[in-house]
Give the backbone structure.
Amino acid sequence: MSVTETSRDELLCDCGCGHRWLVTRGSVRTSEGERRFIAIPTAHKDTRFWWMALEVEAGRWALTRTWIQEKNVNSQTVDLAISPLRGVVPFASDASAAMLRADVLAKPALKEALFAAHDLVIRHHPSIGAHLDPEMGRDFSFKAPDCVWSQPPKERSPRNQLNFAECGHRLFVRALFAIPVSDGAELRVGLWVEVSTEDFFELLKVWDDPAKYVAFRANGVVENSLALRGRDVRGSRATLAPRNADECLFFAAVDEPALDELLKTGVSVRDLDALVTEVRSVMTRQATPPSTAGAS
Ligand SMILES: [Zn+2]
């Protein structure tokens, strides 16, 4: 690993939006030695930037802004005035620690070293994927309830689909467990919930009727095993409700107090990566077919 993170802090956005951004500091090992970096990922509506300062000479930092456009990573050098880095050490007390954009561009060798280090951080920093490509990094879903997953593929119901599933006489719907993140985004995990026969068929009936769909409510029991903050969600009773007519159901409440708190108060952006790592490891397990599947 050529990128080492040494600290994670939070910074309240100074635009008044109330979001708290991650401030990640560390160092990157390049062919020319170790360089320090400070990065602040921000997200306002659909505009997501990865702001970074890289120490290109002792005590002298060059600033960049990075974003994704049509799946390509773009980056450019910027002045301190437009970067949220102006609010953190050392720039908050010493603006001259940041090089002017014009001065960086006037030195081709320095600019080249800057972007070599920049690209290494982009490639290896644990938070960058989840930030710049949120659809890849913050949206997860179980493909099926655990009880369907444990069936040999040939025994699974052909009626199972993206949001509805059955396992013998048991009926399931998929709903999003959406955890608010302090930077204003959400970590979403699609979980399967066993509901009553009545609720299952009622949901099917109102699925394409927006007015009736938004009024739909159901209760059920989670049928996927996933540890969130050390607590398995499986077996929890949940209340499900749509947020709007265009998306699938969401968890509105959970009877397990710690999980309900996670659902309502969310996580600090500092803790997001640890949570994503936990979720991703479970998803990877379900993505791999059970070893008995091939024999059936
Ligand atoms: Zn803001």
